[in-house]
Amino acid sequence: MEHVIAARAQMGTSLAFHIVFAALGVGLPLLVFAAEGLWLRTKDRAYYDLARVWAKGMAILFAVGAVSGTILSFELGLLWPQFMKYAGGIIGLPFSLEGFAFFIEAIFIGLYLYGWDKLSPRSHWLSALPIVISGPISAAFVTLANAWMQMPTGFRSVNGHITDVRPLAAMFAKPWATEVTHGTLAAYVFTGFAAAGVCAVAWLGGDRRSQVVKGMHVAMTLAAIALPIQIIVGDVAARFVAENEPAKFAAMEVVYHTRADAPITIGGIPSADHISGAIEIPELLSILVAFNPHAVVTGLDRIKPDDRPPLAATHLSFDTMVGCASLLMLVVLGWLYTLVRHRPLARWLGCGIAAGPPLALAALEAGWFVTEFGRQPWIARGLLRTADAVTIAPGVAVQFYAFSIIYVILAAMTWWLLRRVDRRRLRAQRPDSVQRIRTAS
Predict the structure, then answer these.
(1) Three-class DSSP labels, 180-209
(2) Which pLDDT band holds residue 119 (cuts at 50, 70, 90)?
(3) Which phi-psi region, left, alpha or beta, contains residue 160 (left: φ > 0; alpha: ψ -120 to 50)?
(4) N or C: less crowded end of the chain, CB within 10 Å?
């Protein structure tokens, strides 16, 4: 394997693995906070049980996410030394601040987990609030660094040397608002459907306990709030990309030639000069970009061949993200209809909710693929190409295979630990938990 292919494969595998735990680290604390808050308000033991179970899952996922995130930080320097030499001093601020947010999250996770029977119920509930806040902030700082890679700013380049660095300007590069908002909402959507899907599988298996039904309700509420907002933000983000990153947008939508009255292209397999098997809706792309059917959309013919993103990977990732999000929205609408009409949960809807986790995961991963594939062949758009930033050290392919095995082992251990939590959930309530409920009441 060539160095650049092996390095990109290793980095892509690491990111695809870590993003699952990063997303759950953003969303799961909010579910824990909501469940314990509902218990304090209603004194319904089912919410207490939910908070205890989800808190254990939160701890396991946080630990694995910390390991995979640490690996990523080392990979940046080991696999992309030229990039770090060039940009390390520019994007160092958001990474440093991410460390502070991470440690705040870690401290309060420890306080929350060990404080169940040592703090008053309200104090214990409030100790989860810093976790709810620091998780999204931690993820946002990393996303700020990625936004800079999409549209570098905040410095001057003189004869290939970086000078006059403005850290705040670099940290808040132009795409920061859309990327951070879109990424945070994606984490909430994924977490909501992941937790609801677990409850739905138990419900379909005949488990009708109150905590299963209420867990599905709490998690679906999060998904139902976040997903419609995400669709709106995604529409705004797409128009931003069309205006500021035309090469990425042309690859996403497979626009070969710059034209007015541009149709939207759904599905299909694109090649260098044509697309097969796609559905085209006339003028719709121009309408979505500028609310004008005659608006001009920049095509790949305006982009130098060496500067074009990988067309098939970018387009298919984009279609996967949009398609999965559309299916999830149908599930949300079905659940809202059942909720508003006060109807019992139908089995077909339970199956739809149970299918939510893989669909939400596919949308999450595909959205990240669009961001990364769409930036190629640049590691920092317009400044440094990916091929020029990669390490020249030997053994990169061996590292890729070794780390892939590590991720398989971590995934298996995580699954095993979560299954142990799930089995213990089915046991009778422990005496100390009963005592705590009585004390709080």
Answers:
(1) HHHHHHHHHHHHHHHHHHHHHHHHHCCCCC
(2) confident
(3) left
(4) C
